[in-house]
Write a structure and sequence with these properties.
By secondary structure, the chain is α/β, with parallel strands linked by helices. The protein has 5 helices and 9 strands. The mean pLDDT is 93.
């Protein structure tokens, strides 16, 4: 399977945004020495901070534009939320949601310490995403689903994009004419379960 083509300018924007939010700032002290390793790092509560190459690929596929409304599902330590904030810029809105209360607190602290313009909320039990605040221009899911989460597709704005790992395959969903169009990227990925 061929990979989905990403514009070089988008890849450069993602690299710059990742540089503006160093991974070490979002890792617990006892694993901060692993920040430069291209591998997932355990951050507690059975959760990981994804490996940088995976995050870079997901963000390149997501293609956040300045001013976008972005939802970060499974925000963990807040690292991807901070990077998304850099990509969306001052005119954008980024909301991270996380189901582990301790990670909600941890991520909020990291965002405050680093000055990222974003927020993290605790996920509403039994609800996927933030349907009451939809639509979103971009939705990033940092947890693996077994099928495409139609609840999140329904929260996409026209022209919006969802990036989610489905059974190990990175899946991109574009909303065009009210119809979700799905594509799979090359490569196999491993994430904690979405639900």
């Amino acid at each position: 399977m061929a990979g989905i083509r990403v514009d070089p300018t988008t890849r450069a924007r993602v690299r710059a945004a990742m540089s503006s939010a160093p991974r070490a700032d979002f890792l617990p002290d006892d694993v901060r020495h692993l920040a430069d390793a291209d591998r997932p790092v355990m951050i507690g509560w059975s959760s990981t901070n994804s490996q940088p190459s995976t995050v870079a690929r997901m963000l390149a596929l997501l293609d956040v534009q300045p001013g976008d409304r972005v939802l970060d599902v499974g925000s963990g330590s807040g690292w991807t939320t901070a990077i998304l904030s850099a990509l969306a810029g001052a005119e954008g809105t980024v909301i991270g949601i996380e189901r582990v209360p301790q990670l909600v607190s941890y991520g909020r602290e990291r965002l405050a310490e680093t000055g990222a313009r974003a927020e993290i909320r605790e996920a509403i039990p039994g609800t996927l995403g933030l349907p009451e605040e939809a639509p979103f221009d971009r939705i990033l899911v940092s947890a693996q689903a077994s099928t495409v989460p139609t609840q999140l597709e329904a929260q996409l704005a026209e022209g919006g994009r969802l990036v989610v790992p489905i059974a190990g395959l990175m899946t991109v969903v574009d909303m065009r004419g009210g119809t979700p169009r799905r594509r799979e990227d090359a490569g196999i990925y491993s994430f904690v379960p979405l639900i």
